[in-house]
Write a structure and sequence with these properties.
This protein is α+β, with helices and mostly antiparallel strands and 398 residues long. The chain has seven helices and 20 strands.
Length: 398
């Protein structure tokens, strides 16, 4: 049996695509230009959502109370036209309905107005604007949650009750531009910490070269170099009541230096990793340190005992400060949280989680009851005692 082998025609890709497009066009040509049929259930849901969003305050109002009904009747009775009736007409005719020809009564008849008539029209327009109530005030009036006097005030708009004040920005006091006075060199590594003496005569710096240097503030001359740390010095604090200088470092050590003898007189042992921050309480003889072990430790200066171990952070405690009023200890951590601590109980009073990135520094305001926190995302200002957020301080680009 012989089979005829007909050759198969091979078309180019362009020809096949064109044929497919032509078939598609022929198939849907009859439906071109026809509107898409609406789904009745979807349309009902759309209208119901729109009504709920725009009219939910006044959609289902209870019947007005007796006091509100009396007030409304009294208000309507007192709304009598004031002054002469003035009809303002324009230069254009206005028919009574579409397709109705103009009659002598609908033609425009310009007429000059007197000063009294213009004033009465202006007063009438202003009164109508004031008497338009808001949705919130209408709901409160119908619910009967306010007395007659408050309802009368609210029915004329909330702007009459609480007038808005213009925002005022506080301008900072001008001072002369800062100028670089002096460059002091002497450290062999990064300067990681600095603290100024309360008497304003000298300041101390701690560096990655494991030394602490004391400098004269007026001349910048090196006065003293203290050695004893075996790693970078990350924090310094000068005591305002005793001749002591406290230093912390990445070697897990917390040292107390006697500046009269220029030597270490106390060690505070307890941190399990590097210590990054130190602060002296302004009124009590205690010391607070924080570090990479995610804890802040409260030390008795004299007995060297650890009074509290403030645990709760899940990452490095980067900075902290102390103050006399509660909360007396504030810590900032790389876990992006700030904690306000109850020093007497040794427990967290509040946790602030507004930052999205790690906290790098904290600063307490000297006169206002506020503080600021710095993070790679921005700087935020907070208000004591509950840590209420005040504002973002933006401007840094990195």
């Amino acid at each position: 049996m012989e089979v005829d082998h007909h050759p198969v025609l091979k078309h180019s890709l362009h020809t096949l695509v064109f044929r497919s497009l032509k078939r598609t066009h022929d198939m849907f040509l009859s439906d071109e230009g026809k509107p898409v049929p609406e789904d009745e259930s979807a349309l009902r849901i759309k209208i119901a959502c729109k009504v709920h969003d725009e009219h939910k305050l006044v959609k289902d109002l209870p019947p007005p109370t007796e006091a509100v009904a009396k007030l409304a009747a009294k208000t309507l009775a007192s709304n009598k036209p004031v002054g002469p009736q003035v009809h303002v007409t324009t230069g254009h005719a206005y028919p009574s309905a579409p397709g109705v020809p103009l009659s002598p009564g609908t033609e425009a008849k310009p007429r000059p107005l007197s000063n009294e008539g213009i004033q009465s029209v202006v007063e009438e327009i202003a009164m109508k604007k004031r008497e338009v109530p808001t949705g919130a005030s209408l709901a409160e009036i119908h619910r009967g949650t306010r007395d007659d006097s408050q309802a009368l005030i609210l029915s004329r708009g909330t702007q009459q009750l609480v007038p808005r004040k213009a925002l005022m920005t506080i301008k900072p006091e001008w001072h002369a531009p800062w100028k670089l006075m002096r460059v002091i060199s002497g450290h062999l590594g990064w300067v990681r910490s600095i603290s100024v003496d309360p008497s304003n005569e000298w300041f101390a710096t701690g560096s990655g070269d494991r030394t602490i240097k004391l400098w004269e503030l007026s001349t910048g001359r090196l006065k003293l170099t203290l050695t004893g740390h075996i790693s970078s010095v990350r924090g310094l604090a000068v005591s305002p009541r005793q001749p002591y200088l406290f230093s912390v470092g990445e070697d897990k050590q917390v040292k107390c230096w006697d500046l009269e003898q220029n030597k270490v007189v106390r060690h505070y042992h307890g941190h399990l990793s590097g210590v990054y921050a130190v602060s002296i309480h302004p009124t009590i003889d205690i010391l607070v340190t924080g570090g990479r072990d995610a804890t802040a430790r409260v030390w008795d200066m004299r007995t060297k005992a650890c009074v509290h171990t403030l645990g709760g952070h899940t990452n490095t405690v980067a900075d902290l400060f102390t103050q006399a009023p509660d909360p007396q200890v504030v810590t900032g951590s790389h876990d992006s949280t700030i904690r306000l601590w109850d020093l007497a109980a040794g427990k967290t009073k509040a946790v602030l989680t507004n930052h999205k990135k790690s906290i790098r520094a904290l600063a307490n305001h000297p006169s206002e009851f506020t503080f600021a926190s710095a993070s790679p995302d921005n700087i935020k200002q907070w208000k004591f005692p509950d840590g209420n957020f005040l504002q973002n301080l933006s401007g840094h680009q990195a």
